[in-house]
Amino acid sequence: MADTQHDELEASTDIDAPPAAVWALVTDVPRMASWSPQVVHTRVKGGVVRQGARFSNLNHQGPLLWPTAGRVVRFEPHRDFAFRIRENRVVWSFELTDNGRGGTTLTQRREVPHGISQLSLVMTRFVLGGVGPFTRRLERGMQETLARVKAEAESA
């Protein structure tokens, strides 16, 4: 379990669908609320997800709501999709790998190349229940997100 501002989080799953099908799901940013238990709504500026695209999120934890702004920082079709959240400086990514069995290994990461912003850490400590508990919720949320993407991809 990670609980510091410099720890990367990671979760993976194998999906019985080709990388192109999984890519179409994870890059459909407006649908992230369908998979992530933290995201309520996402709106992409200009409507097209690509390198440099910007979007806004509304997130929640119980009754608490907060907005964030994201920007796509990596966009390598069928392989790597990542976006940076302005408020906390973290990068959320999805790496897709052909698993050699006609399916895809999907890995979701929370990358912290520049640490987490002090403002975000303070808000997490005093509003969202503390860094440790919040991080554990993120880890569970990553597992839920991957399970929901997997279910959607395999039902297509």
* CATH architecture heading: 2-Layer Sandwich
Q: Choose one word for the global shape.
A: globular
Assembly of the depicted chains: single chain
How widely separated are the two ends?
A: 33 Å
Number of strand segments: 7
Percentage of residues in strands = 35-45%
**What are the low-pLDDT stretches, counting only 5+ consecutive residues below 50?**
none
Spatially, the strands of the biggest sheet line up as 1-7-6-5-4-3-2
CATH class categorisation: Alpha Beta
Here the CATH topology equals: Alpha-D-Glucose-1,6-Bisphosphate, Chain A, domain 4
Helix content: 25-40%
Report the structural category: alpha+beta
Q: Helix-strand pattern, N to C?
A: EHHEEEEEEHH
Folded structure, characterized:
The chain is an alpha+beta fold. The protein has one domain: 2-Layer Sandwich (Alpha-D-Glucose-1,6-Bisphosphate, Chain A, domain 4), CATH 3.30.530.20. Helices cover 29% and strands 36% of the residues. The protein contains four helices and seven strands. A seven-stranded antiparallel beta sheet has the order 1-7-6-5-4-3-2. Helix 1 (19-26) crosses helix 4. It is globular, with a radius of gyration of 15 Å. The termini are far apart. It comes from Nocardioides plantarum. This is SRPBCC family protein. It holds the Pfam family Polyketide_cyc2.
Give me the secondary-structure topology:
Layout: E1 9-15, H1 19-26, H2 32-35, E2 39-44, E3 54-61, E4 64-76, E5 80-85, E6 91-98, E7 104-111, H3 118-126, H4 131-155
Antiparallel strand pairs: 1-7, 2-3, 3-4, 4-5, 5-6, 6-7
Helix pairs in contact: 1-4
Name its key features.
single chain; 156 residues; Alpha-D-Glucose-1,6-Bisphosphate, Chain A, domain 4; 4 helices; 7 strands; globular; Polyketide_cyclase/dehydratase; SRPBCC family protein; START-like_dom_sf
